Amino acid sequence: MMAECTINDNIDESDSDYSDEDFETYYHPMEYGDSEENHNPVDAEDPELFPVECLTMEQVEMFLNEAVNSVCHILNINMSLAKLFLLFNNWDVEKIISGYKLDITSFLISSRVLPTLQSQQQSANIDDNDCQCEQQQPGSGNIINDNVFICPVCTCSSLKSLGLCLECQHTFCTECWTTYVEVKISEGQSTEITCMAQNCNLLLQEVIALKLPISSYLKLQYQHFAFHNYVISHPLLRFCVGPNCNVIFKAKQSLAKRIVCPQCKSVFCFKCGDSYHAPTDCATIKNWLTKCADDSETANYFSAHTKDCPNCNICIEKNGGCNHMQCYKCRHDFCWMCLGDWKGHGSEYYECSRYKENSETANESAKARAALRKYLHYYERWQNHAKSLKLEEKTLEKIKDRINQKVMNGSGTWIDWQYLLDAAALLAKCRYTLQYTYPYAYYMNNESKNLFEYQQAQLEAEIENLSWKVERAETTDRGDLENQMYIAEKRRKTLLKDFFQT
Amino acid sequence: MAALPRRIIKETQRLMAEPVPGISAVPDESNARYFHVIVTGPEDSPFEGGLFKLELFLPEDYPMSAPKVRFITKIYHPNIDKLGRICLDILKDKWSPALQIRTVLLSIQALLSAPNPDDPLANDVAELWKINEIEAIRNAKEWTRKYAMDN
Q1: Residues A32, A142: one domain?
Q2: Residue A334's closest CA among A309, A315, A352?
Q3: Tell me, what CATH number does A427's domain have?
Q4: Nearest Cα to B35, choosing from B100, B122, B82?
Q5: How many angstroms separate the Cα of A21 from the Cα of each of A312, A340, A411, A417, A475?
Q6: pTM exceeds 0.90
Q7: What angle do CA A458, A461, A464 make, to 5 degrees?
Q8: Do B61 and A154 touch (CB under 8 A)?
Q9: Range(s) of the domain holding residue A389
Q10: C-alpha pair distances (Å), A384 with each of A27, A288, A378, A441, A495
């Protein structure tokens, strides 16, 4: 890695040194770069290969309806119920059918269509008791006579025929249901709307919700939100993460592979929707990012400025020059250099050889330190590559400017210089993967770690070579640069092939 | 403003006719949706002997949305912050239109008897409540005496 000032210096120099002869050596209209993938689209060995379809909303609806119809058909139930089953079972048709056939009642209870047996008994008791009673039973309509009941929400009496209840028998008047559903939709809810009674979690099915006299605008909203829930719950579908991008991706398997949106160019992981993270898996990268968000600042500071007291393990910040420390908490005297007891420290404590001797007494703190050191080792590299990626974006801008200048000055055509852009793109891709190898290594704990670290080191070395050459692109031979691109990409693929399990 | 829904009228009437023990809720003279509430500190709690003023407002879409409730009297409680806002599930996502002003106020009174420092709103209070409950309770009593017993 080189400092930014040298980048500038070199590019400026090379620019003034530039001559037509150099140009000749660049002028070989051969194809390379990202074309490798384009030319061999059937490279089944490519660990990142992941065919997806981009669907429109209509196509997704058709795709979802196939599943809905098959469930309807096989179980002989209505569409609304089938959708609810699918939503709660990750659209796994087989699982639904076997679950339903095994035990309909418990399947309906777990799908929140039937109340739990406990609450069934409770409402049965209420039905027995409340025939003529005046006391208001929360959640259960008060029955005045066979035809009229009092809605517990608006406290108005209305005809029983105008009441509406789910399987839980919590009856409310249609007017209250309507207002309730309208409020819920305007809060962004749809398939998750439940019964109005307290602690009743039965779901209001789509068919019932949409039969209520709610405005057509809110009906559309409902369908919109429900569609969103269906897509999100489907393991083979994913919305593009790009802002205001309407593309929906459909894959054959739910894998942690790279998606590049053809419309908004967003890059993300299909499985978790976060930034693409090969070779690390979704759960690990999530742990890592949480850890970094929690720990990085504090950990950095601790590491730079503090040590733990060897006696009581409290974290100590050194605020003076003297290495004879006394712990603020336990009053233990120790040496800042070797963490050994200060007793026995003569005037020559700079030669502290007591570190090993004392490693047992400071065992706990040593462990904590070691854990922190390990984390920081990986974190610094992770951060460093993230920064390099940012800096190399600037390099790319400079390359673009320079290409424009060249073309304006008549040194070659725009097309002649495209390989530089390919090189910069490839560099970014490789460095990105390299960045994400560090969380992987941090959590790695098996015998293949040596191999992984070897490959990681190889990749890193080639990437730095490539970065060096890209920054000095105008003095580097084009063939040389392209060779370096090939090597770096090969290393990246090899590492992914061996370690990127999805 | 639209006419007051029957539900609110009924609830108000019942609150006046059969008040909940330890709780008084009186609608404002100029706004029937705004209630002046006084909750007495429950027995055997650090708030015993205190009279806590609250305000309760029924929003336009009540009972589809929860009432808005806030402590006016300062109170030392892990689930109530310094602005008097209350962390209580039934006032948020667990609201059900079948709940009433009466049930909400009863829940708030119960919250005073059983603080829940694991779901805090006032972090410093909750922290102390977990680390040193005795001191926290002492603070709560102190605040009760200072702010809730004036009148």
Answers
A1: no
A2: A309
A3: 1.20.120
A4: B100
A5: 71, 66, 10, 15, 11
A6: no
A7: 150
A8: no
A9: 1-49+281-304+375-502
A10: 35, 16, 10, 15, 20
Catalytic machinery residues of A: 322
Residues A80 and A131 in one domain: yes
Residues of chain A positioned with their CB less than 8 A from the CB of B99: 138, 198
For chain B, report the end-to-end CA distance as a whole number of angstroms. 35
Asked if residue A107 and residue A4 are part of one domain, the reply reads no
For residues A300 and A447, membership in a common domain is answered with yes
Is B20 designated active site? no
- The answer to whether the Cβ–Cβ distance between B98 and A183 falls below 8 Å is no
pLDDT band at A29 (very low <50, low <70, confident <90, very high): very low
Which one from B75, B87, B121, B136 is the annotated catalytic residue?
Answer: B87
Residue of A170, A198, A199 to mutate, testing the B interface (most B Cβ within 10 Å of its Cβ): A198
Kindly report the nearest CA distance between residue A138 and chain B, in angstroms.
Answer: 6
* pLDDT tens readout for residues B1-37: 567 888 899 999 999 998 888 999 999 999 999 999 9
| Phi, psi torsion values for B86, nearest 5 degrees | -115, 135
Cβ atoms within 10 Å, residue A361: 15
**By CA distance, what is B9's nearest residue in A?**
A155
Q: Which residues of A touch B96 (CB under 8 A)?
A: 139, 196-200
The answer to whether B132 contacts chain A (CB < 8 Å) is no
Same domain, A38 and A88: no
Q: How close A99 comes to chain B (CA, Å)?
A: 30
Q: Is residue A249 situated within a structural domain?
A: no
Are residues A45 and A122 part of one domain?
A: no
Q: Sign of the CA dihedral A380, A386, A389, A390?
A: negative
Q: What is the pLDDT of residues A322-366, one digit of tens each?
A: 667 778 777 788 877 777 777 766 554 445 544 444 444 456 666
Does A207 map to a domain? yes
Question: Which residues, at least 6 apart from A235, have a Cβ–Cβ distance to it below 8 Å?
Answer: A90, A91, A254
Number of domains in chain A: 2
Indicate yes or no: CB of B96 within 8 angstroms of CB of A199. Answer: yes
